[in-house]
Amino acid sequence: MEFYFDGSLFGWMVKDSFSNYAYANEQACRYFNCKKDEIIGCSDADLIPDLGSSYKYILSDDKKIMATARMSIVLKVFDYGGQNRLKAYLVEKRPWILADNSPGVICTYIELTNVYFSTFLRQHTRRPLVFEKPSSIFTEREWEVILLLLCGMKRNIMSDILNISTLTLRNRISRCCEKAGVINESELSKYCYSNGWDNYIPPFFLKKRYINIIK
What is the pLDDT along the chain (215 residues), one digit of tens a residue? Predict the structure, then answer.
């Protein structure tokens, strides 16, 4: 395993059946700002103290991979390395068999420095993700609605994600339209695209900490 992964440009880690790390290459150690002997035997919750309730989703995902032998690809946004600066990583996880033949999970960490959120929305446009709101025209709650609108979400799904009523959602969309000087959601989306606001990720989604992209 060391032969294949120690010299890789990507971070590679292996978890045991309890979701504790059994291996980490040098690049992965840099992500967590830890030495290898400080990572082995630790869980994600040990390495990232502020992970909070999100840890249960990581555990659930790991167990599902081991049970179904299917891969998972997730987007993680954390202050890796304790630099007080948010970074985004694409993490690919696959089933793995450890040396004692017990099930595990192998993880690949790739920092998203040249992959842009707008790629998922409009294939012909590529701009960096931003985590600070680009304008004060909308409140943070309204920016949450803007992002989901730009992603093409239906209203019932939007209200579920934001955990608000359909009436509250309707009112927020109306306020956004009023502030933008447009008459409907379609025009609101065009207005945001024209201002280059399609790559802003509001704090609400960052607090989730563990966002499934493909599974």
Answer: 566 787 787 889 999 999 999 999 988 888 778 888 899 999 988 888 777 777 888 899 999 999 999 998 877 776 655 556 667 778 899 999 998 999 999 999 877 665 555 555 555 555 667 888 899 999 999 999 999 998 888 898 889 888 899 999 999 999 999 999 999 999 999 999 899 898 888 888 766 544 443 33
Same domain, 122 and 108: no
Helix H, strand E, coil C: the string for 149-207 is HHCCCCHHHHHHHHCCCHHHHHHHHHHHHHHHCCCCHHHHHHHHHHCCCCCECCHHHHH
Quote the number of domains for the chain: 2
140 & 96 share domain? no
Range of the domain at 196: 118-207
Residue 214 lies inside a defined structural domain of this protein = no
